[in-house]
């Protein structure tokens, strides 16, 4: 007996040392690098030992040799007698298996969690969750073991029976949590403590909180049932079956406000959106009913359906005002995700809220879309990057377990859970049964705390069902008969919860019924359900868009700067700190730029950009430019970020001149983005919509890369103002030009953008010299309105001396929508043919005309394709009294490029007797040929065609 006492007090397996070894081993299993080297070597050797019991290998496998080693170390202790060895071995073995059982529940307990309100699946067999798997018998259940690495009790020991009950209460009831994939031990311990200390039940849900939850469920259900009877058959994407989402969202708003959040930006698709608008954001039900009845705003050119519209309001929470904004979004499901993140980032920077403590992005997903849409992964990949992080996003999943009406869940994804994609950024996931609204609120509160504590993404997966079809015109029982037999029998979450509270004597039956009747009356009266809404509250961080909304379109802006100012700016952007060692090529570039700013040599495209950026920054306009190679420039023309070749004296070895112009300048941000187009462009659109005083630019590495972001262009950039009244000054730089580089890197698909142009919705520009890029960038901010700008930027022209500009071109004048003939040797009266073009092909034509000594053919450049400058074009035509032939010339194939768009504009300005022709490549399925020799043949042919005596007449006046 005395020897056993000595063993318990001195062996590292027992007494005060046992928890230490157990904790080390748990840490080792999660991350071998997190333990000391001698312990890592010891555990490595044990893990590599052969199994002795023949059991299945699991994540916590091969415990037998470990237990044996622990026992051997105990036996080797000089204070342990031989008579106690067998007993020590048995105790050590069981203690380690208790730790394995705890680890198994933390990792696998979710598979036994009661998550499905429809209870359609039987509980799967998981041997690792059964005590018998570890050799425990009924007799062992009442034995006391160490539980020092758990948070179930303040005691360091519990009986196995109590440990098992605590594990199942915590991890196998209405909440199933996935967090063991997180590599940071402190995060895992935080989640363990929060879950295990309450056994997965929020101890703070008192009677008042329960009544509030019931009120939320009553409102969620009440709105849907009212709309169902009042507007029969109209689409609304009902929330019935997922009413707990409203309780979850209410908790997000109020609890995040308690933690200091002042703005919440929400993105969500259709399901439950109308419920969110009325019951969370306080939209007047009467306004919603008017939309159902076909009434609409006269201020929008086109408008949108009611379940796409956004809304914003200021709510008076228990901790102060919170601005809540629901982003507008189209039917492309998850595409709103990066837009929300961009908007949140802009608002955070406006507040200098660089850790995201005041501005919170919230994304609401559907289960199938979350696992099926690639933009979800792209957006998640932005979460922890420097240029796109927002301090963590709260993701709420309305998990209907079905997706679309005819979807078979077996075909909706290849993962166990719809949320598995978030494991790529190690986000924890709280799966919760939607029929347990208290658990939903608890999981939501935990998620908010996690996000605010760690600044990382977190997911609450509300497993529910969808009472009706994908929309209210569907009959889901046609394709899901068994599922909908269960749904028909389901009494509804509100009824289940009301019955629970009645049984707990929290409320009476009469009170529960009264809540339903009272809400119905509120709907009948069309009154607001959320009080108080702060109608007279104005945050000092709010942007006033009024000055931008009522301005009329104009092509002109005073963008020129005095020579003295240009020289001063030139000095600032070519300075580097003492001791900073630039690459020899960059040193030459900076030296050339100094000469350009002094007027000694002409400006190139990169210098035109830099002077525009710097002048805007010094005038108080921020500049943000992102893309996959934006710092250097894909074609090494920009060099906004300089790299110290020694990297000894600088934090990251870089210096950005545009960030060091003055102490009072506006921010300049340049980011080499992740390899994404869709999410990054969506992010920048969201940023630009929230920050009109920053020149926000997304640059494609090659113009055709924009194809990967077509949804953002179609659904937001080109149509956002027409549908939602959302102005955006987003600028897209898309390198475009036919230089024999093959089909993949020639065309930025000008024709697609022009097809989307109407109602002055955006600007499509193809500048052909350095002064034009300077003026158009400055014009984008100086004019009193915000329109998207699509810039088709050059490649070979970046260093073409013919495309350079004297300093006087930016100290005078402004952006030219059309550049007239510049050759003074052309006699206007003798001109019978006018070549009209856009982009690089102008220089091919001008050089060919010079080489062929042609003096009766004029060439003009259309720099702004849309809006087409009719007056400027008409003025150019008037210069040539004997003009009879107008030929549009383009590099692109005939079915691509501007031709089919622009021919009607050209024809409109022609006079009687004039004929219109086309010179360019034939129609093609591919944007360009892949063979350089063939490209050169085609290029020569189109130039010859432009100057040929005879041409094919397309249109004639």
Automatic annotation (TrEMBL):
Which Pfam families does this UniProt record tie to the protein?
2-oxogl_dehyd_N, E1_dh, OxoGdeHyase_C, Transket_pyr
User: Per the UniProt entry, what is one GO biological process?
Assistant: glycolytic process
EC number, UniProt record? 1.2.4.2
Please tell me one Gene Ontology term that the record gives under cellular component.
cytosol
Reaction catalyzed: N(6)-[(R)-lipoyl]-L-lysyl-[protein] + 2-oxoglutarate + H(+) = N(6)-[(R)-S(8)-succinyldihydrolipoyl]-L-lysyl-[protein] + CO2
Keywords (A to Z) from UniProt: Glycolysis, Oxidoreductase, Thiamine pyrophosphate
Tell me where in this chain the Transketolase-like pyrimidine-binding domain is found.
603-800
Q: Which cofactor does it need?
A: thiamine diphosphate
Keyword set includes Metal-binding: no
Top-rank taxon? Bacteria
Q: Do you know which InterPro entries this protein is assigned to?
A: 2-oxogl_dehyd_N (IPR032106), 2oxoglutarate_DH_E1 (IPR011603), DH_E1 (IPR001017), KGD_C_sf (IPR042179), ODO-1/KGD_C (IPR031717), THDP-binding (IPR029061), Transketolase-like_Pyr-bd (IPR005475)
Q: Does the keyword Oxidoreductase apply?
A: yes
Assembly, per entry: Homodimer. Part of the 2-oxoglutarate dehydrogenase (OGDH) complex composed of E1 (2-oxoglutarate dehydrogenase), E2 (dihydrolipoamide succinyltransferase) and E3 (dihydrolipoamide dehydrogenase); the complex contains multiple copies of the three enzymatic components (E1, E2 and E3).
Q: What exactly does this protein do?
A: E1 component of the 2-oxoglutarate dehydrogenase (OGDH) complex which catalyzes the decarboxylation of 2-oxoglutarate, the first step in the conversion of 2-oxoglutarate to succinyl-CoA and CO(2).
Q: Which family does it belong to?
A: Belongs to the alpha-ketoglutarate dehydrogenase family.
Q: What is this protein called?
A: 2-oxoglutarate dehydrogenase E1 component
């Amino acid at each position: 007996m005395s020897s056993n006492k000595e063993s318990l007090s001195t062996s590292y397996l027992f007494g005060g040392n046992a928890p230490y070894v157990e904790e080390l081993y748990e840490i080792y299993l999660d991350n071998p690098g997190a333990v000391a080297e001698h312990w890592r070597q010891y555990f490595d050797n044990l893990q590599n030992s052969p199994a002795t019991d023949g059991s299945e290998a699991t994540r916590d496998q091969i415990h037998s040799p470990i237990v044996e080693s622990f026992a051997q170390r105990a036996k080797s202790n000089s204070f342990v007698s031989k008579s106690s060895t067998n007993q020590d071995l048995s105790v050590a073995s069981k203690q380690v298996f208790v730790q394995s059982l705890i680890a198994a529940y933390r990792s696998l307990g979710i598979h036994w969690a009661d998550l499905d309100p429809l209870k359609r699946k039987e509980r799967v067999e998981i041997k690792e969750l059964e005590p018998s798997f570890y050799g425990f018998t009924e007799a062992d259940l009442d034995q006391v073991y160490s539980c020092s690495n758990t948070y179930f009790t303040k005691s360091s020991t519990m009986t196995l029976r109590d440990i098992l009950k605590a594990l199942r209460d915590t991890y196998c009831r209405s909440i199933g949590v996935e967090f063991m994939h997180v590599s940071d031990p402190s995060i895992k311990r935080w989640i363990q403590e929060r879950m295990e200390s309450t056994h997965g039940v929020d101890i703070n849900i008192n009677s008042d909180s329960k009544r509030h939850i019931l009120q939320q469920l009553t409102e969620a259900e009440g709105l849907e049932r009212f709309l169902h009877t009042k507007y029969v058959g109209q689409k609304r994407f009902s929330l019935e079956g997922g009413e707990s989402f409203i309780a979850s969202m209410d908790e997000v708003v109020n609890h995040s406000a308690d933690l200091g959040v002042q703005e919440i930006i929400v993105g969500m698709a259709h399901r439950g959106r109308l419920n969110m608008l009325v019951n969370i954001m306080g939209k007047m039900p009467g306004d919603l009913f008017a939309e159902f009845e076909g009434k609409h705003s006269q201020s929008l050119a086109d408008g949108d359906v009611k379940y796409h519209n956004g809304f914003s309001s200021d709510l008076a929470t228990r901790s102060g005002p919170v601005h809540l904004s629901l982003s507008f979004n189209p039917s492309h499901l998850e595409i709103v995700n990066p837009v929300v993140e961009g908007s949140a980032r802009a608002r955070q920077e406006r507040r200098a809220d660089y850790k995201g403590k005041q501005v919170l992005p919230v994304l609401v997903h559907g289960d199938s879309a979350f696992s099926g849409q690639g933009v979800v992964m792209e957006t998640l990949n932005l979460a922890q990057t420097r240029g796109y992080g927002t301090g963590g996003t709260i993701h709420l999943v309305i998990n209907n377990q079905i997706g679309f009406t005819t979807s078979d869940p077996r075909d909706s994804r290849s993962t166990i859970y719809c949320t598995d994609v978030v494991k790529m950024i190690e986000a924890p996931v709280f799966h919760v049964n939607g029929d347990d609204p208290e658990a939903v609120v608890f999981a939501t509160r935990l998620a908010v705390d996690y996000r605010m504590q760690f600044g990382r993404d977190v997911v609450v997966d509300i497993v529910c069902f969808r009472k009706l079809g994908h929309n209210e015109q569907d009959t889901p029982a046609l394709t899901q008969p068994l599922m909908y037999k269960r749904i028909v029998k389901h009494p509804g979450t509100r009824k289940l919860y009301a019955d629970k509270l009645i049984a707990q004597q929290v409320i009476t039956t009469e009170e529960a019924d009264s809540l339903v009747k009272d809400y119905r009356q509120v709907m009948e009266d069309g009154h607001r359900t959320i009080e108080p809404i702060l109608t007279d509250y104005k945050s000092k961080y709010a942007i006033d868009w009024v000055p931008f909304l009522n301005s009329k379109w104009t092509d002109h802006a005073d963008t020129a700067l005095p020579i003295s100012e240009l020289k001063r700016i030139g000095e600032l952007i070519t300075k580097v700190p003492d001791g900073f060692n630039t690459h020899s090529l960059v040193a030459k570039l900076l030296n050339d730029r100094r000469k350009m700013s002094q007027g000694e040599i002409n400006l190139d495209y990169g210098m035109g950009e830099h002077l525009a950026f710097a002048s805007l920054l010094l005038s108080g306009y921020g500049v943000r430019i992102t893309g996959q190679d934006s710092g250097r420039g894909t074609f090494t023309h920009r060099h906004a970020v300089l790299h110290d070749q020694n990297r000894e004296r600088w934090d990251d070895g870089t210096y950005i001149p545009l960030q060091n112009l003055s102490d009072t300048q506006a921010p300049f941000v340049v980011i080499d983005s992740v390899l994404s187009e869709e999410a990054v462009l969506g992010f920048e659109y969201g940023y630009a919509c929230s920050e009109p005083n920053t020149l926000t630019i997304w640059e494609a590495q090659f113009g055709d890369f924009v194809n990967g972001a077509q949804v953002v262009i179609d659904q937001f950039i080109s149509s956002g103002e027409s549908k939602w009244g959302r102005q955006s000054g987003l600028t897209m730089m898309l390198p475009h030009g036919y230089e024999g580089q093959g089909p993949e890197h020639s065309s930025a698909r000008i024709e697609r953008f022009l097809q989307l142009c109407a109602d002055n919705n955006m600007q499509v520009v193809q500048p052909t010299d350095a002064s034009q890029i300077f003026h158009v960038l400055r014009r984008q901010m100086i004019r009193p309105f915000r329109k998207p700008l699509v810039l088709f930027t050059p490649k070979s022209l970046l260093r073409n001396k013919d495309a350079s500009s004297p300093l006087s071109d930016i100290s005078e004048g402004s952006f030219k929508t059309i550049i007239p003939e510049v050759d003074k040797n052309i006699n206007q009266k003798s001109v019978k043919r006018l070549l009209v073009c856009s982009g690089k092909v102008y220089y091919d034509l001008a050089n060919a005309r010079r080489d062929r000594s042609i003096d009766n053919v004029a060439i003009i450049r259309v720099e702004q394709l849309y809006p087409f400058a009719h007056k400027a074009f008409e003025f150019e035509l008037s210069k040539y009294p004997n003009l009879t032939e107008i030929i549009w010339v383009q590099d692109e194939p005939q079915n691509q490029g501007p031709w089919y768009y622009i021919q009607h504009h050209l024809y409109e300005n022609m006079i009687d007797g004039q004929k219109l022709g086309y010179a360019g490549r034939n129609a093609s399925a591919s944007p360009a040929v892949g063979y350089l020799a063939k490209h050169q043949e085609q290029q020569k042919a189109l130039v010859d065609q432009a100057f040929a005596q005879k041409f094919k007449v397309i249109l004639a006046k």
